[in-house]
């Protein structure tokens, strides 16, 4: 009997250990310490409150937050009594459960205990009690039913979400309030916005878009609302670069150092910045203000070039930041700034005041983040690590990259002394819904609070429970099935060029259609479509709708490409049939027309769906730009449909090259992305400037987006150029140049793991010179595709084309490499035969 009893007790103990080990609290972020029991305990939605320390006003505020939750769903269980304890009044009960860990909870931590004997939340502050309340809310909503003791505190005291509202979507005030409430449940304590021009200060009310802005009064309203959720709003205004939107207005044009930089030495520019920043400092509630000043493209090449040459770029930049620092300090705030330019010119770090907070950013999956942390850490400077949830120029945010980036950067940041975890959500490209970003927001909330990797594996389960009150895993399954598109050539890196591409050429034009991997992509999309259809959310259904829309948009694009490729074949077959069997040929053509009509309706329905979703989040600003691709595609399809119906009725098919079906279907990869600079005027046709990238012989740097050159008394910008027709770079259409003899430069990079000489094929309408790594390697006279050899070194190779125009000759080019080379690209950066997949950050 004794032996049996011992075996029974041992088995019970092992079962209990296994239960505790397997049990995962449905909580986000996950607590630092928790003890999970097996004793059944109720978690009712209706609670009664008693205080041990909090005054009546504090208890009422906390009870009101709980009541919002309790009345949002069906009541369950009998009401229970919960005690709210401020530890400076009484810490005996909390100490009994927390032990020495009680010393770790600080200003935001808490102790939460729920069992048959005790039910309380204890903290040093109201904020700690509020965060304990959020955990209790999640346990209740998640159906937790056994005793639990939690001791919790944040890894980072500053946990920031930074939302881009200047490159397209600008949220409505009601939607921002929803963001605040939802983020606060995740214990995010700061929210900020990327602001270039979408605020309306009283001193300068004329630069904000009429249909997309935040007024000073609205910002104050949001700051007050956030305070109720123990959150502060960090002020922000772009104060050096990325200033093109304001400078494009006639009344502000003279303030420019260049077309995109405000002039640091212009008195009117300085007053403008002081006025605007001053008002914003008074409206945003946090003790810091972010002047941005990142990506100052063309720094030192603008109207102050002579001065910059005399003092140096670092001093020129630092002096402007000192001016901004003084403005911020006058308003009782501490200055934040992005760290990228200071990292490029490290002298800047030694020139600025020591209490500047640097926001050091990197959004990729890196082996380590030394380059972004060590320069600040070794000087003892304050810095926050800035991870990213990247929408930029993508069809959907790359959550696989975001997960790796957030995990790695936050861990190293903490090790190296970062004072905050700052997560950016960028919207370059402008066609995005914030409801697509929440997986990343929950991820950053989890990791900025708790850096322990033990619960990484449970994240997806906890995400679905806390976000959607489901446990079926279907949202995450669909999301990461969609992420598999990153690896396919057609959908590489989730790039939005697939959507921006023209689907049909204009009359007299040609389009290249490469459907390599389209069938594989469609299979992934259809699986994701099936997965998300089974998601069945009980809350936040808009998140599911945003993912469903992205999946359906991919399906529409890929299906369109496959149908159009088939239509080219059908048209060719019908053309051959027409002389002998016009009736059969017309049947084929009418079937194509019916397909086009159905496609048009699908694009129109997609546009209506997206417009509805946009306006549920955002102000009308930029919506017309976002809807333009839908309208253009619908119009092109309808136009081709009409063309085909007319041809079928007349039993006469025009040559395909004269129609909107002039599509070259191929499996060859043409280089679609370049950087262009021009047109540069020359004395006569055939002349070629002797400089490589810039006339400035002291500047040996290869071009980057935003760089510009001075040539013949004018400024010419290097601009990113994506071909919209599959790889035909139509310079006539881009420039509409009527100024006589000229030349354009085209630049790209080719990276290869090992040195090799590869065959390139260049088709240009005019004489073109080709350079590889600064050395001339070929010249073609124009008029048809011609071969040339590129001697590539291991690593990055710099390819430059110098292409003059000619009278009565089309100005265009196409460029490709030999067929057996596998090519991927991110913008104008191409990779050959990559041994491992490397996804690029924008």
Automatic annotation (TrEMBL):
GO terms for molecular function: beta-N-acetylhexosaminidase activity. It catalyses: Hydrolysis of terminal non-reducing N-acetyl-D-hexosamine residues in N-acetyl-beta-D-hexosaminides. Residues 26-152 form the Beta-hexosaminidase bacterial type N-terminal domain. InterPro entries: Beta_hexosaminidase_sua/sub, GH, Glyco_hydro_20_cat, Hex-like_dom2, HEX_bac_N. Its EC number is 3.2.1.52. It comes from the Bacteria. Residues 1-22 form the signal peptide. Residues 209-385 form the Glycoside hydrolase family 20 catalytic domain. The active site is at residue 295. One of its GO terms (biological process) is carbohydrate metabolic process. Belongs to the glycosyl hydrolase 20 family. This is beta-N-acetylhexosaminidase. The lineage of its organism: Bacteria, Pseudomonadati, Bacteroidota, Chitinophagia, Chitinophagales.
């Amino acid at each position: 009997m004794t032996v049996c009893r011992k075996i029974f007790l041992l088995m019970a103990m092992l079962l209990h250990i296994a239960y505790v080990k397997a049990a995962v609290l449905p909580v986000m972020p996950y607590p630092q310490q928790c003890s999970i029991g097996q004793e059944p305990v109720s978690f009712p939605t209706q609670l009664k409150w008693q205080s041990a320390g909090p005054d009546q006003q504090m208890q009422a505020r906390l009870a009101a937050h709980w009541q919002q939750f309790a009345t949002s769903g069906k009541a369950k269980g009998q009401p229970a009594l919960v005690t709210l304890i401020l530890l400076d009044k009484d810490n005996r009960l909390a100490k009994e459960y927390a032990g020495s860990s009680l010393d770790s909870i600080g200003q935001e931590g808490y102790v939460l205990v729920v069992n048959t004997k005790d039910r309380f939340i204890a903290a040093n502050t109201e904020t700690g009690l509020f965060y304990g309340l959020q955990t209790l809310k999640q346990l209740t909503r998640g159906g937790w039913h056994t005793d639990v003791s939690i001791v919790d505190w944040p890894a980072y005291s500053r946990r920031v979400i930074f939302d881009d509202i200047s490159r397209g979507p600008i949220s409505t005030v009601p939607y921002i309030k929803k963001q605040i409430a939802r983020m606060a449940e995740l214990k995010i304590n700061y929210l900020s916005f990327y602001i270039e021009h979408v605020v309306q200060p009283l001193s300068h009310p004329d630069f904000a878009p009429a249909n997309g802005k935040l007024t000073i009064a609205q910002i104050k309203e949001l700051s007050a609302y956030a305070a109720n959720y123990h959150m502060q709003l960090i002020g922000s205004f772009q104060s050096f670069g990325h200033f093109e939107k304001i400078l494009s207005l006639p009344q502000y044009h003279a303030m420019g150092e260049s077309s995109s930089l405000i002039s640091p030495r212009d008195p009117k520019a300085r007053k403008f910045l002081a006025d605007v920043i001053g008002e914003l400092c008074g409206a945003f509630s946090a003790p810091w203000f972010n002047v941005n000043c990142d990506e100052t493209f063309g720094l030192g090449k603008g109207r102050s070039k002579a001065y910059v040459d005399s003092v140096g770029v670092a001093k020129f930049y630092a002096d402007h930041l000192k001016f901004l620092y003084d403005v911020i300090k006058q308003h009782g705030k501490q200055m934040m700034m992005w760290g990228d330019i200071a990292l490029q010119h490290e002298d800047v770090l030694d020139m600025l005041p020591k209490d500047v907070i640097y926001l050091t950013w990197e959004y990729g999956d890196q082996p380590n983040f030394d380059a972004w942390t060590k320069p600040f850490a070794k000087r003892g400077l304050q810095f926050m690590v800035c991870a990213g949830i990247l929408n930029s120029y993508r069809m959907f945010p790359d959550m696989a990259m975001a997960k790796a980036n957030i995990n790695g950067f936050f861990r190293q940041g903490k090790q190296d002394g970062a004072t905050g975890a700052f997560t950016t959500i960028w919207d370059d490209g402008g066609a995005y819904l914030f409801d697509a970003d929440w997986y990343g927001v929950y991820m950053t909330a989890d990791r900025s609070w708790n850096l322990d990797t033990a619960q990484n594996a449970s994240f997806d389960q906890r995400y679905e429970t806390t976000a959607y009150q489901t446990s079926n895993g279907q949202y995450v399954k669909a999301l990461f099935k969609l992420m598999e598109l990153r690896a396919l050539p057609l959908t590489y890196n989730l790039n939005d060029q697939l959507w921006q591409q023209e689907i049909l050429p204009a009359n007299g034009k040609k389009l290249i259609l490469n459907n390599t991997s389209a069938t594989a992509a469609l299979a992934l999309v259809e699986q994701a479509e099936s997965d998300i259809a089974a998601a069945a959310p009980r809350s936040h259904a808009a998140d599911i709708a945003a993912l469903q829309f992205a999946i359906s948009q991919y399906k529409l694009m890929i299906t369109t490409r496959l149908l159009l490729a088939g239509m080219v074949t059908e048209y060719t077959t019908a053309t051959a049939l027409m002389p002998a069997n016009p009736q059969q040929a017309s049947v084929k053509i009418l079937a194509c027309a019916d397909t086009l009509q159905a496609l048009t309706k699908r694009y129109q329905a997609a546009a209506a769906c997206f417009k509805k979703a946009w306006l549920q989040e955002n102000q009308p600003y930029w919506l017309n730009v976002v809807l333009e691709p839908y309208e253009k595609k619908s119009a092109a399809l309808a136009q081709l449909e009409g063309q085909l119906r007319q041809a079928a009725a007349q039993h006469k098919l025009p040559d395909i090259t004269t129609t909107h079906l002039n599509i070259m279907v191929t499996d060859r990869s043409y280089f679609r992305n370049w950087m262009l600079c021009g047109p540069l005027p020359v004395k006569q046709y055939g002349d070629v400037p002797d400089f490589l990238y810039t006339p400035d012989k002291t500047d040996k740097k290869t071009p980057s987006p935003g760089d510009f050159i001075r040539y013949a008394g004018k400024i010419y910008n290097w601009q990113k150029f994506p071909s919209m027709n599959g790889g035909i770079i139509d310079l006539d259409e881009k420039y509409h140049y009527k100024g006589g003899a000229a030349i354009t430069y085209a630049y790209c990079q080719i990276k290869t793991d090992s040195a090799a000489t590869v065959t390139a094929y260049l088709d240009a309408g005019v004489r073109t010179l080709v350079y590889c790594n600064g050395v001339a390697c070929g010249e073609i006279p124009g008029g048809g595709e011609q071969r040339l050899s590129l001697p590539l070194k291991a690593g990055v190779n710099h390819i430059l084309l110098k292409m003059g125009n000619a009278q009565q000759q089309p100005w265009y080019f196409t460029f490709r490499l030999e067929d057996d080379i596998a090519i991927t690209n991110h913008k104008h950066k191409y990779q050959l035969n990559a041994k491992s997949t490397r996804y690029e950050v924008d």
